[in-house]
Structure formats: structure tokens, C-alpha cells
Structure prediction request, 436 residues.
Amino acid sequence: MKNQRGQVILLLIVIMTVALAIGLSVVQKSLVDVSTASKVEQSSRAFSAAEAGIEKALTGTVNCTDCQYFSDTSSTIKQINTNSIPCVPGTTGCAQEAGVRQVAFEYPPLAKEEVAQVWLADPTATNLPVCTGGTYNICYTQSRLDVYWGNSSIDKAAIELTLVYYDGVKYTSRKWYLDQTTRDPVNGFRQVSCSSTTLISYIYQCKVTLGDNSYAGGFPLPTGLMLIRARLLYNNTSQPFAVQAGVACPAAAGSCTAYSLPPQARMITSTGTSGETQRKIQVFQEYKVAPPYFDYAIFSAGEIKK
Amino acid sequence: MKGFSLIEMLLVVVTVSTIVFLLASLPNAFLLMTKSKHLSLAREIASKQIEDIRATAFVNLINDTTEISDIRLNQLPDAAGAKIIADCEAAVCTNEENIKQVTVTVSWKDNNQLQSVSLNTFVGEGGINQ
Prediction:
């Protein structure tokens, strides 16, 4: 018998391998596509449910778990939490007891020239600028106030602070322009040296204490404090801003309202679920904030005399 | 003696199996890819409707069931879409809050089987984007 040599088997094996590889990859891609599309659809449902939770909470205080709001069970609102911030130590619902310094009121990161406003008197009070007369003093009356800003040693932010206070006769504002570096062209801002400070939510590049006269030129803090507004300047990235009471509330104090920033914002967190997918949305809602252009406009009830 | 060797038989079996596998799975695979593409498109159409409703002033949200108008529905076979706006149920909005319950549904047919995507949410007066 003649020895026969050929290459058919080899070619057949190669062709089959290639065809199998192509076929398997197509099948795998189709399975991944379907799985991804299904997960994305669940994610959209969960996100819509989370938004629904935020909408519900914006109309009133809501705290619920497994909130049964939809008859269609393809998506549910797993949890809604509403917290008034900052809370006054020693008050109902506040985790802090009297005798400690109130935690800082930390604003969500601010873009360049975006304005943050922090109330130093109760914004819901009807008899401001009078702070007393009720059961407790409704204004922050201490002589020190800590201000924090920035989170980058490279993208250095300057800050414009506007303090509004009642001097006994009228509302008055006082401004500070602070910078952590020299600029070109020179801006004339007061130079402050900065060192990093960590609070609950963010790490801050700079801190100044208003009322601390050990700084060159001092930061005199008047009485009758109403609110403080801040605007970040020169920053290219959004950076955080915070204000904190400068002293601790004595344990023996009947109320800590005079030693604390009043509750003035709500942090609403809503979690929506669909299948195994969860989406969470957090909203920061502040009460009674004057728009940014108010800092540049003059409003007068009567004639303005030059 | 004429006949087939064992190696030849094995190779034929493997070859035929491969061809059968490819013929059986590839059409299904392409169908699945088309289905996932339609699912993604339907989800995007529904999400866009929700965003448009949020951008509408609350006073202009009328309780009604209306058809969705989106040019991308033409890319889905036998597609239809509806948005239902209704007052929040009394059992849910116990304080008579100004909230509308919104349901957007996009349906279409894949391989003669009815498919749908449905998104539920709330839109409140003074809420998101209001």
C-alpha cells in the first residue's frame, strides 16, 4: 500500500477552530449585551424611584424604610432619610449631647464664585434681630467662629467673607478678603497661612478663626451676628467650605442655641431599588438663601443719597 | 479493505457538531443582540420623557394618559409609548402634598413577543428641576 500524505485533516482542524472561536465570541457578546442592557434598565428604574423619594421628602420631613409608594413593584424606594443640619447639641434627635462643641456645618463643594450662606441666627425666627425674649436665645452669640475652605494645595482658593450683623440700630456688613498665596496681578487680599484640617466630610486646606485677634490685623467679630456669606475665588475645581462654632456648649447650659449654629438646611438621602440594583441620591436643601447677585446690588426702601 | 478509519469518523463527528452548534446558536445570538439594543433604546426614550416632565412647570402637569411622541420610537418594531400623570395616592401622600405620580411605559415587539420598559417616579411642586 502506498504511503499517502496529505493536509486535509490539518486544514479541517484549523477551519473548525476558527469557526468555533468566532461562534463562541458572538454568543458571549450577545449574552453580555443582554445582561448589560437589563442591568442598565434596572438602574434607570432604581434612579427614578430614588428621585421619587427626594420629591416626597422635599414636600415635608420623611423618614422611612421599604417605603411602599408604588403599586408596580418593579421598583421601590428602599429608604428615605431627612436630617436637619446642623443640629444643636442637647436637642431632641441630635446625636451630640450638651457639653461638646457643635460639629461643623459643611457645605457641598462650591464652584468658583459660587456663594455659600450660613445663618448665625435662626432663619425661621419672626422677631429678628431680637435674639432673646423666647425660651432660649436664638442667635449665635459667642466671640469666636471658625471658617474652613479649600481642599487643594495646588488649586489654591481665595475667599471673600461677608458678615452681616445688627449693630443695635441697623443691619451692617463687614467683609474680609483672604488669600493663601500671592497673585499676579496683586489683589491686595490679606495673606493667611494655611494648614490642613480634617472635619467629618472633607479635608480643608485653610482655617481662620473670626474673633481671634492674634492674627495680624485681627478678625474682630461684632455682636448681633445674623449670617455669613462666602465666595471662593481663583479656584478651578469645586472646593468645600464650612463654618463651625468656636466654643463648646457648657454642659450646665440650659440650652446650646447661643453656642451653636442654628438648624438651617436639610440633607435628604433617598435610595431606590430595582431587582438587585440600588441607586442613591443625596440632596442638600438650605432655607432662605439670598441669591448671589444680592452681593452686588443695592436695594433701598427709600431714596439713596450719595 | 475500503472503509473509514477511526480518526476520520471522529473528525466528521466533531465537524458536524461544530456546524450544528453554530447554526443553532448564532441566530439566537443575533436575536439577543437586537433585543438588548431595543431594550437600551426604550429605556433612553422613557428616561427622556421623565426628564421632560420634570422640566415642565408643576401647574402645567395635567392628570391624563397621553401617548409619547419621540422620533426614536420608529426604530423599535411595533412600538408604542404612554405617560400617565396622576395625583399622588392619598395613602402615600397623607398630608395632601402637591405631588404627581408619573409612569412612563414604552412597549414594542421583539420576535412577536411583547416587551416593555416602565419607569415610575414622583414629581412634586418645587421639586427637582421645578
